[in-house]
Amino acid sequence: MSRQSDNYSSESSTALPIVIRGLTKRYGQLYALDFVDLDVKSGEFLTLLGPSGSGKTTLLMAIAGFSRPDAGSIRFGETEMILTPPHRRDVGMVFQSYALFPHMSVSENIAFPLKLRRVGAKERAERVDAALSTVQLSDFGERRVDQLSGGQRQRVALARAFVFRPRILLMDEPLSALDKKLREQMQIELKQLHRQLGVTTVYVTHDQREALTMSDRIAVINFGKLAQIDTPQAIYNQPANSFVADFIGESTMLPLTHAGSDQLFFEDYLIATDFPTNSNDEWSLVVRPERLFAVKEAITDPNETILFNGVVREFVFQGDTAFALASISDKYDLSIRFGTDSSEFQNVMRPGDKVSLGLHRRDVIIIPRTT
Ligand code: ADP
Ligand code: MG
């Protein structure tokens, strides 16, 4: 690369896809990233979701260029970036800890990446003003950052990350230091900001609800491997395996046994027909608590609904929803969740009551069982 084309591309504004192949990072015996293939589409909001220690930060740092992988390829569009230093990757980054300069004003913090890119004073001032307005801090430019609240600091960190119009924006658990209410408000604001900027965004969180709220697609990561990548709806409704089913949303998993050539049973309940399996395949039924409903047996068509007979063990009122636990056999309980306004059963579910719980066949989720 020549000195000329080495310049920070401060004028670039078109979003870029990220293409990751075989990315591997080891710490001693531990594979923090284990041959990861990942495509981030141009302009999309992709979330890396996984438990603590699953490799999310390692992957983000590799994209940003702060961590050197042992093997693999990271392309931004057509360009291989694996040997490109962080400051030449044209990537905006927001950290959990904000990493603002405490001795500088809000405006000076936001202007910093523009100065680095030698943007002239006049344009710098205009862009800082525009960024301040985007994050709703127009009156705070002269404040020192240590005079701001957590939410305001996070907005400054954001403005500093996008003010130079990067083609890729990376965020590592940027809201985790905020309290619940502010966090939920900022989730919506970040989503709106993304829509406005159209920048390819990779967002890291361990909070499944946050991932479902914000993302175009979610990449679920576990032990340095991608467990599934898809839209929030598909991840929730068609989890690929028990890790994803368990990590995202609430669920009960029931072991299935195979009968005949293509039938699956849970104990005596026929769960699926037309499910050809190899005799050594093992499967589980995933039941989402909100997909269960209490029913009167007489009006239920067994072709459309599986009916579990149970006994209520627990009933808990939680405000917007209520939660119950019903035992359906010696070994297994089902969790049920329902709205508190409409359910005719909220007053009749008492420990010891018999209940019939319906599950529409269209809500049946079957996944490979892992032992
Ligand atoms: P996450 O961000 O998902 O919580 P990380 O990417 O930070 O996970 O870490 C993935 C794994 O790599 C963890 O097991 C972590 O302990 C390990 N790890 C991360 N950084 C280092 C390091 N500098 N030295 C040794 N092990 C590390
Ligand atoms: Mg992390």
Report on the structure:
This protein has 371 residues and is an alpha+beta fold. It folds into 2 domains: 6-244, 3-Layer(aba) Sandwich (Rossmann fold), CATH 3.40.50.300; 250-368, RNA polymerase II/Efflux pump adaptor protein, barrel-sandwich hybrid domain (OB fold (Dihydrolipoamide Acetyltransferase, E2P), Beta Barrel), CATH 2.40.50.100. The protein has 8 helices and 20 strands. It has helices spanning 56-64, 106-116, 121-134, 150-162, 180-197, 208-214, 232-237, 242-247, and strands spanning 18-27, 30-40, 45-49, 71-76, 79-80, 91-94, 168-172, 200-205, 217-222, 225-230, 252-259, 263-266, 269-272, 283-287, 292-294, 305-317, 321-327, 333-339, 354-360, 365-368. The strands form 4 sheets. It has a 6-stranded mixed β-sheet, sandwiched between helices. A 5-stranded antiparallel β-sheet has the order 13-12-11-14-20. Strands 15-19-16-17-18 form a 5-stranded antiparallel β-sheet, with no helix packed on it. A hairpin with a 3-residue loop joins β11 (252-259) and β12. α2 (106-116) packs across α3, α2 (106-116) packs parallel to α4 and α3 (121-134) packs across α4 (150-162). It is elongated and about 75 Å long. 35% of the residues are buried. Bound molecules: adenosine-5'-diphosphate and magnesium ion (MG). The site of magnesium ion (MG) has 2 residues, from α1. Magnesium ion (MG) binds next to α1.
